[in-house]
Amino acid sequence: MRKRIIQLLVLLLPLGLIVAFKTYSKSQKDKESIISELVISGLKFAHYNNNKIDDNFSKRVYKTTLEGLDYTKKFLLQSDVDQLQKYKTLIDDELNNGNDDYINLANEIITQRIKDAEVFYPEILSKPFDFKKDENIQLDNKKNTFAKTKAELKDAWRKSLKYQVLYELNTRLEIQKKAKEKNDTTVKQKSFVTLEKEARAKVEKRNKDYFHRLNQLEQKDRFNQFMNAVSLSFDPHTNYYPPKDKEDFDIVMSGQLEGIGATLQEKDGYIKVVHIVPGSPSYKEGELKAGDLILKVAQGDDEALDITGMRLDKAVRYIRGKKGTTVKLTVKTVDGDIKVISIVRDVVVIEDTYAKSVIVKSPNSNERIGYIYLPSFYVNFNKKDGGRRCSSDVLKEIKKLKKEGIDGLIIDLRNDGGGSLPDVVKMAGFFIKEGPIVQVKQKTGAAQSLNDTDPNIYYDGPMAVMVNSNSASASEIFAAALQDYNRAVIIGGKQTFGKGTVQRIINLDDIVNSQLDQYKPLGALKLTFQKFYRITGASTQLKGVVPDVILPDNYMYIDYGERELEYHLPWDEIAPAPYMPTEMISNRKLIAKESKDRIKNNKDFKLIKEQAEVIKHRRNDTEISLNLNKYKKLLAKRVKENKKFKQIYSDTTLVKVIPLQADWQFIEKDSNKVKTAKDWHKKLSSDVYLRESIEVLEHL
Question: Which residues are catalytic?
């Protein structure tokens, strides 16, 4: 049977397959067996790498699961690790044979260790700490080791709790000190003893909530973590998504969900409303407010379900729901009233995830530069027709900008982690006549060019693309294509993220037949199945895209990006694709030199370089004193440094921002939208990177 499943998976996975399993019982264990077999088969035969399920694979999974079990090294003892280490080269055998001894043992050990640790914090926090004692805590968990004895483990908890109290205590002391200096009588002056006691009480409450969340984890949560560790052993972008995580992924990619439009958090055993999304069903209904506590949830006229003490992700599943359905919330309001609020669910649009544009100018120039901000290459995977997608939205923004008159165009892809491959190909094609945009290659066979087939050029003027170290995947495809075609100047840090791989989402529900409907939902597998290459043949994997104009940034002195991730795929290159560069950008070296001369004496970029040095130092200096006086001196030094760096974004006269009339006529009708827009415009007006990008365009 296993061989038949694997053969079907190999033949049909790219198209969506139907897999027949033997009949399973209705137990969770059988559901996990189905998921495990699907994930392993997918990794074996559809992943780009020819990784084998062998001892080397087993070592990778072991390392990842151990980090997932106890990344802080405050729960497991070294003897526990020794017990688990027996499976270091046996996990592959367990998976191939359908055994679950390793995951069961891991779950059993960590569950017990959480119970053991839970008794530490109330006892340790029951009496004051000695903050005159000279001792340190290592905050980088990678530099710590597992405790050999329970006494050693308890001492690790003591230091951790002491550090938390130290932070809270110092904050209270600083508030009192500033209030006294300003003669602020609204802040009551308290003794050191009282403040220390209050700090311990707050830390105790925080840890109580922390253990409450830990105790809500179920064995199936550990299984999900294990399946993700199995997937990550192939490369850092291959993941198993349990159903809830898949739903969240779809929301991020599409920028919308079906529900009530309220941001929630778990606090003190209650589900608390933190924010109401403007324009959402909750916003339109008007009764639900930030600060309210949701006590019960009812579907329509059904009996209400008490969600007090429930995990947030579970509570959200009851509150979200299909468009047009009604949910009734029993709510305790901020002023203590209990009432039932009825809300009809609808599509909630998260506007911040979509492309938007304005016109920007240098204060002393008449040139109008179109500016498009694209937070991700979004697409609604679950909606074949009619769903919003980035390429269509960007084209609309280009047309609006051209209608209002622009002398140049900036596409801002900073912190854009990528997304839809078809959309980036289409979007890059807006700026060239025709030709290849990117090459993609599967593990077998020749590379294939993905081409722009639309002969229309939707914008043919001067152009720049802004990137940074967090611009990844589709952002790198776009920047690389426009750089290779000499179509735009790329502006940013020393290089982009360096993610040169393509993933496909496989919904596991779609690849099993109806006999297994009782086990659904099964989740999804995000699988690396291709690498992409520039049209020059070079990969962006690890090396990213090197901008034409390199500006100082916070990451300039540290290793950052794909190369920092474990089990990344290697860099390589293939044959170039035939393409014809434009003559738009012919003087890249001169452009870079002029920019370098401009920023040489720029006070903001000097500060950014200093900040990068500080970040490098702080990244390595991770041992902190638990002596109050020494801690105060360290904090005072850092506060002084941070205060200096705040000046970088303090000048709001760097860029003049002009909203588009086509947009503002709708924005001005909604006070929330007006505030959001003005906050964004203010941020842009002090953006030193945007100012330099405008200067680059003006000097083309």
Answer: 473, 484, 499
